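worker-03 picked up job from queue 'complexes'. Input manifest follows; two sequence lines, order preserved.
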Amino acid sequence: MTTVVIASYFEEEYIRRIREVDGRLRVLYREDLVPPPRWPGDHAGSEDWKRTQRGEDEFLAMLGEAEVLYDFPRGHVDDLVEVAPKLRWVQGSMAGAGEVAQRAGLGETDVVVTTASGIYSGPLAEFVLMAMLQHAKDLDRLQSDKAEKIWRQGTTGTLERKTLCVVGTGSIGRAIAVRARPFGMRIVGVKRTVREDDAAWDYADELYATAELHDALGEADYVAVTLPGTPETRRLLDAEAIAAIKPGAHFSNVGRGAVVDEAALVEALQSGHLSGAALDVFEVEPLPAESPLWGLDNVIISAHTTDVVPDLINAAQTALFCENLRRYLAGEELLNVLDKRLLY
Amino acid sequence: MTTVVIASYFEEEYIRRIREVDGRLRVLYREDLVPPPRWPGDHAGSEDWKRTQRGEDEFLAMLGEAEVLYDFPRGHVDDLVEVAPKLRWVQGSMAGAGEVAQRAGLGETDVVVTTASGIYSGPLAEFVLMAMLQHAKDLDRLQSDKAEKIWRQGTTGTLERKTLCVVGTGSIGRAIAVRARPFGMRIVGVKRTVREDDAAWDYADELYATAELHDALGEADYVAVTLPGTPETRRLLDAEAIAAIKPGAHFSNVGRGAVVDEAALVEALQSGHLSGAALDVFEVEPLPAESPLWGLDNVIISAHTTDVVPDLINAAQTALFCENLRRYLAGEELLNVLDKRLLY
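worker-03 finished. Artifact:
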């Protein structure tokens, strides 16, 4: 028997689906021992929530038997290796599980970590495309004209024949590119290294290695940052990189806030070097009240939840986990395995 | 020699391209005899503009020799047949040239009319996709939260797995569908008649004939109306059709205002039967100040110019005209020929 412990909240329907994957599974789940979701699809739960002492004992007993974990367990990330000695695989619920895997000290173990990479890509791409379109068609002006009942005929912009620079060509970058391309956009991708047979050529007109980031940014009417937070990506979009972006461009970030020098971004938005931005992630979250971003007209702010689509998320996540469970039992390679060196 | 008269404003570059199509062309164009554009890409010009008496005589002399007209001539639509007796073909600058061709009385002549259908489809599709995305992701809430510096974590919507009903599967409907499909939407098309080998099957998951319009609307999370203004399409979206739309759906119209019963649409938006609308066309244009549409929060209003993209428009239009000129001289079938019975 393989013992699977489900360590965050999932609807009954999804628990049932997991149980049905294989008769050799022993699936442990106690709804009262995981933090209740703050909204459908939430897995972190409120910071105030705590297990009772008895609940804590029972939860530790479950973790002690876990060979497979579905999500990182609340309250036991830092001591995961000790409390779950039989652990061989954790399926995270986040797209970027590198930070939490590192915190759990799994880098030095044989425990396999798989991420939910890909699950959130569609909703994130929608946020970027929404932002690009409202920018191109000047929705702000349409709305202010409407407020004053102004029938203003004139010209509008378009995404057609514009260049979109997607920084990071993982599943989010791909999701953005495949949606942007039918608009007649030219797609320029930036990735660590570029090979001739790179899969990203399927959806990119041009690929640049990270070393050539500034060249790529210089061509961009639109920039979309999708990079995970790793030591390597930290402040990759620094003041120099932002200055290298084609003047007047629009900037989106749906990766991690640490990838961008936020003060430099603010300056570029204030000076007009950048014509607008759409941000789902920030250097400090929640975004502090004193951040100048709140006051900039040309900025769209989302509270790091533009990927949380009820139903879609837990359904897709559980479908991924079930497929991985099947592969695990069959001894096949798992999907979305975290590279513990690169942390994505 | 074939005499071509260019009857509305085009930039010098495009005039030159037309002259270069073939040595057998005699191209007549006088910038001072056509209305100056109110914005780049405009062909109608201000209502106040008038030719001098001498200019009028000179313009009439040009029309008298025209075998081919590039656009309908300002001030001479109603008497076109009399003032241009040698006319054999008019290339219009509008996507829907049915109304003006009828006014010119060309329905009873052998004069071929070609439209600019397709040229405007991309920008119109962008307007519809922008509206659908800002609706799905609740951009209004993001903006109002931002105004109050509220960091609101929670769920958001998506276009994924939603059904888009495209009413009218011409080039605009196609442009919308090919952009919406990569978002994971299900596309339902409505067209006059449906054949098994219909080209629209390339991008639609389901096709309904106009007679089954209500069934199609009942499945729609999003409705996009793209129909031209013809006697047949007049008020096709009447109160009954609007009532047949799936409750809570979002509604776009980029076809013609006359296709929709605007009072019924307003009522559906006020009652909540429809959750939002994006309109580029209206029953009466300019939209009267007393229209309740101005005051509805869930409506985006554009002044029938969301298709006017500078450069793109005149460049694409002239490329189409040049190709048609080549075909005309070679005795081949022209592109975008207006069906004088169906008026599109």
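worker-03 released lock.
The longest helix of chain A spans residues 312-330.
Chain A touches chain B through 55 residues (CB under 8 Å).
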